[in-house]
Description:
By secondary structure, this protein is α/β, with parallel strands linked by helices. 33% of the residues lie in helices and 24% in strands. It has helices spanning 9-26, 98-101, 103-111, 162-175, 195-203, 214-223, 247-256, 258-275, and strands at residues 32-36, 48-54, 72-78, 81-87, 115-124, 134-142, 180-186, 208-210, 226-236.
Amino acid sequence: MSPPPAPQAAQAHHLEAAAREVARRLGHPPENAVILGSGLGPLAEELAGRVAMPVSEIPGHPLPRVEGHAGRWVKGLLGGVPVLALQGRSHFYEGYDMEQVTFATVLLQRLGVRRLIVTNASGAASPRVRPGDLMLITGAINFQLHQPRWSPAARRGMPLDLRLMAVAERVAAERGIPLRRGALLASCGPSYETPSEVRLIARFGADAACMSTVPEILAAGQVGLRVLGISCITNFGSGLSDRPLNHEEVMVTADRVAGRFRALVEGVLEVFHRENP
Length: 277
């Protein structure tokens, strides 16, 4: 079977125009970037010397429409290390295609970013993780049934970077931050999974479920970005708890673990800056 075609020329044109505009507004980008998921966006407000631009001013960039996704790019220093933080993301269930969902990921690579930390809020699907845990994403399962198509010769195999995983685990151990390991499954959403679907997700080997992130991981692998993934487990999946699921619980739990999340990301960035792994 022949590989799917790369995105159309119009999409490539948007990338070039977007890269020029971001560089003009934010200056030369740092080597490290982080995509902040639901409830995790406030980390960008803590960057020293921050400069921000709304994604509405980036040509071709889709607009996030979900609570907890501010839709801003923020450049600044975290722990003295330059970083570009993306406050929020767009989702497949918002009606965007896979190239739009992963547009920001590929744009980061065009700008010269080398390492990308993707983060999200996820629901527990196995007993190995619980709400309030931080989980190192060690595997990615795409149940959105569509693939980003940024390269007709997309790199196969493991897009997550094993050396960056080792950095995260080392930092977590040094700073006393509990860090679980687990595979992440992305479903289409926007509804939460049913109890039967949660049981199926666990049987497929996933420890947590979300409605994003995995396409970004796949796109990063296609364009050569080194990628590290961290999930904040914010709730039990359906059937694993008697509590009803709602987005408010996601936001509250993300806020509760914000200190540990910041310490982990800051420590990882410091190692990236110091050791250039």
